[in-house]
Design goal:
Blueprint (H helix, E strand, L loop, with lengths): L12 H16 L8 H10 L1 H43 L12 H23 L15 H38 L15 H21 L13 H5 L18 H4 L17 E2 L2 E2 L2 H28 L3 H13 L1 H6 L3 H15 L4 H15 L6 H7 L5 H22 L3 H12 L22 H17 L6 H18 L12 H9 L8 H4 L16
Antiparallel strand pairs: 1-2
Helix pairs in contact: 3-4, 3-5, 5-18, 6-9, 6-10, 9-10, 9-12, 10-19, 12-13, 13-15, 14-17, 17-18, 18-19
Length: about 525
Amino acid sequence: MNEFPLGYERVPPTTWAYLSSLLLLAVYFKFSRFWSVRNLDLFLIILLAPGLLFVHFGAAGRERIRTEVVSVLDSFEAQQLNDEAAASAASPSESTSGNEVEPSDSVTSDASSEVAEAGAMLRNSFDSTPPSTEAVDPRFDVVREEYLDAYFKARRLEHRGYLWLFLVNSLLLIRMLVDPMLVRRPLLEPNLSSGGLTFMGSSMLVFMLANLFMTAPMKYDLYYVPEISERIAWPEAEVEPPQPAEGPGYRLLSNAPMLPMLVDTTRRPVDTEDGQVSTAPAVMARLLVIASLAALVVAIVLCGSRHFENYWMGIGIATLFLMLPYSVQMTGRINHVLPAALLVWAVFVYRLPFLAGMFIGAASGLIYYPLFLLPLWLSFYWRRGWVRFALGVSTSLLSLLVSLWLFGDGQATFTAGMRQMFGLWMPRNAGLGGIWALGWEPVFRLPMIAGVVAIAGSLAIWPSRKNLGTLISGSCAILIGVQFWDGYQGGLSMGWYLPLALLAIFRPNTDDKTADRVIRSKAKAPANGAGTAA
């Protein structure tokens, strides 16, 4: 966003984390009730920022070091080619024996073996374990000594960031599980007036939308950073890095580019010339992210004004979400913001089971993980509306399958896309990202998956009579749980649950908002005016 507004420069992530934390405390902290649950919730939300910063700077550091290592290897290769060419030109005696030999073939062969040897040495040096102290070619000492410590330091920083996020997510998970037992929920409105919150939230939204509009899309996510051994295996420096193994989700969405919200000089925009994006996927990604973010904010405001009967609270929740460091850093990812908007809209239209089912089904088809919400939502509508909800879910999933068939390349592509959409494979142990690529054994994902399944099943049974509050907090708890075993960006996909967490934190008592009370029966009232059938 260097062109609009004139002279504007984006705030660095660390600076914004400090500023937004102070602003959140000033606007939402209840100084008159210091020991309130609201203040504890606010601190839990703020504590997500350090982990996010650790992961960002750790991944950016590893990517920067990887780029420098490739540059050093290229210089070694060029120097080797020059040395071989000079050596063959300085010794013409071999060509006087009558046997003419092409010097270029010899030079190329020697150079290729030398570069292969260099790659093997460097791969051993940058393995996941510290390298041995055996002597190596002195020409590569600069690579090992100068980059190795910095690489492992960045790797440890990223690892600590994921551990921090998992710890805070654990506390948030416990908070959402006990939320239905907090029956006393006094109205604690923000410290700023509704007019001030509206102005602040609108300003934040305008700046974020302008930022998204001016940002050049990237093809690969910074938070999937392959190991150096993979980077050295590229035949040319201009070849794009390999993509991670495709996780469960909608194939047409997983291939979409992302919009980096932060300035990142380690990657170049995809399909760009002089910084101008000209590809149709990039334009569609930008429009979809902007529309999804605007729809998410509108849905939060409507939930506050309609279901909580307090516009002040709705605009306060939306403004809080826009001020979070996560929103400033990562809302440019379609697979974060679009499912979040669908889930919040499902909460807003919960009085209409078919429409709510369509939103939940669409979110489930796009990112797979909301499929674990189905037992909870079906149990909520069990007294009334579960058939309409199931029809809505089925309609969305069927529509996504039809789109996959129409825009796919054939039967094989459709079958692979359907398996990816519903996660029809055994849990993988290779090609993972996040903390599972930084030292954690992937086999430990299995008990975490079992734990999430147990939580989803338990919330479908308890409490037996569910209201809107238990629906929101239970959905948030399940989506927090999947962060632990998500093998690709586990812990970073906070957009899936943060809007729901804020709604659960700020909601009033909703004991009267149950399915059998707010959902109309399909049976028509009799002519004599008697009540409708239950």
